Amino acid sequence: MTTAEAADTASSTEAAPPRVRLLVFVAWCVWLLVWLAPAMLLAPRVSDARPWMTAEAAPAAVLAGAALFLVAAWPFLPAFLGFPRGGAPDLPRKTADERGGSGDPPRKNPDGRVGARLIGLSVLEAVVLAALALPFLVVARSVAGGGPAAGPATATAGGLVVLGLGLRTAAAGLPSGAGRRLMFGALLVCGGPPVVAYAAAETLGGAVPGLLEVSPVVALVRAGMDGWPEGAWPTLARLYLWPMVGVGLAVLGLLSARRAQT
To answer: Which residues of the chain are modeled with pLDDT < 50?
Structure first.
């Protein structure tokens, strides 16, 4: 990614039109509704419903959908919805002095900020997402006759928001192509441990201890349904592992963006 491309990506990510940002919230609501629909619509009409379709599974389904969205979709929605290219007005062309010569890269890039503004707008988005999720959790609670544990679920979801912020900052600040690799890694982290655990149970006849705790989706579901974790590894995996990864990714993205500006 050239310095000019970094400027394009960062500044237009921050300056996306409100109508485009609104699509993020619409996608969030539709996504949670899809995860809630089986327990509300299918389970009452199926004589032998699967465990994930029962009314009791409604809170867990909403939490699983929220975790997957926050980690594997929300950080990358700016790119999907056209923030980097078409979402902002064209940047002014650099003068010869700003370019540092006819063929040299720009020495300064004031439009390439990947920092406080990007993170601040993302935090505001996260607050709105949390507010929009409350009605779905209330519905899930009423359907199941009981809801998730508020404290553990909130703490774990907050950690996943930090991870999402780190992924978004890294995707905006790292060179071109990093966003695709980060999204693939996020999907792998979310879905890989359950798939491996299931394969181990089917082929080896036993579970891999502690493997499921690595998945952010499983972490949020278990925190919401089982309460505060017991033991060092579950506590680390659910409450501290992914926020620390998010902070590290954010620092990496900020440093990469700063190098691109010099």
So the answer is: 1-15, 84-112
